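[Q] Does anyone have a clean structure-token version of this?
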Amino acid sequence: MDLFYQRTETNEKVVVIFRPYSMYVLLVVLLALMAITFVPALVAYEALGNVLIPIAAVVVIARIVFMYKVNQEVQNAIRSDSVTISGSKLSAKNPLTFVITKTAGQ
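[A] Here you go.
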């Protein structure tokens, strides 16, 4: 799914790029929840927490469901020591990238 990751496959390698945007949404939602909870001036917005908590849950569940297959692929490549990892999970300019080198059996 292009919203969470981008996967490109060639004869020699598989490139998986984790997109950071869902993490940005999750961080913003969690920061807003913390602000509403701990800042007394924001007590009037307490009902907004009833909307933000399900949004955070949906983002987490969507990441787990839609990225399960690609996460398994990356984990198997890490176990077989055929992966190069670069980038950062929260960087839009340099996203977390896995380059999986194919072997003869793949």
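[Q] Thanks! Anything notable?
[A] The chain is about 45% helix and 20% strand.
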